[in-house]
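FORM 7B - TANDEM STRUCTURE REPORT

SECTION 1: FIRST PROTEIN
SEQUENCE AND TOKENS:
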Amino acid sequence: MQMHDVIGRGAAVLRRRKGWTQEQAARAYRAHGLATWRRGTVGDLEVGRRRLWADDVLLICIALGTTLDALIEAADESGAAVVELAPGVALSAQAVREYLRPGADSRPAGPQCTADAVPTDAESRAAKQLGTSPAEIRHAALTLWSRAFDEERDSRIAGVAVMGQRSRQARRGLAARQMLAEVADYLRVPEP
């Protein structure tokens, strides 16, 4: 999902926690500087159809009486959300929250940043089978195995180089299916 989707989802969760209708939220947003916002605008925000500027995000937080960190946390109920920041660049929602917190020692390191420019064929196939994005597959692989999906698959069949090509392909397929099951479990999606 993209950042505006995360913010919209979080805004919807926090609005409902307050017991507000979309009309009441629109009034709160207008009172806090988003002068043209109506119920339909709130609906567009909450379903991810509204692109946001930084000042919009700040005013949303002020109107809801929250922080951007808490807004993102509310959107990530499963704990497995991946935020696509640009094509091929994604962070877990948790990593985004950590980048928003003050202090250099709170910055995420390691596999949470998934900045390969182009998804691999294996990631794209896995994403299609699980009904998710290649960025989510990459994030799960880096979290689970500290390496890309392809690298993990190849490491699992490293000892089969002396086998024939058909046997090697069968082992790759078996490794990929096992990995898909692990990723599906991590992402909490049904196995293919």
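SECTION 2: SECOND PROTEIN
SEQUENCE AND TOKENS:
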Amino acid sequence: MIERELEDGLRRAAAQQRAVAERALADLDLTPAQLAVLCIVSEQPGLSAAEVARLERLTPPTMSVIVGNLVRKKAVEKRPHPDNARVQQLSVTELGARLYREGAERLLASQRRMRSVLPIGAEALVKQWLRAVAESGP
């Protein structure tokens, strides 16, 4: 069946992409989710973990674990919000900024390798299709 073939192909491609990302970040002791949080907090310092969770479409408990691990690694710091002491604002430390840069470079290199298997001119079409699928909703 064609539907099964497409579903299997997407699942295998997603699994391969995740495995490639995990291998690229392994010796930095980072997960792809941690790198995504470092990216967001680098670009938007002062966000709370709840705000980052909404941006990444993760549950608050999942984000709590990710942020907790980044704080333990000293890659992210928490500071009380000036208007609400119960809200903790996140900021990237110098170590976090370095990990983000190195991790992002590695992921870009691995993405280039994955794109190299596409036929010439197909990348734009694949991106357009993936965007349409992602935006089509449930």
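SECTION 3: OBSERVATIONS ON SECOND PROTEIN
The helical segments are 2-25, 32-43, 49-56, 60-72, 94-115, 122-135.
The mean pLDDT is 91.

SECTION 4: SIGNATURE
Preparer initials: ____
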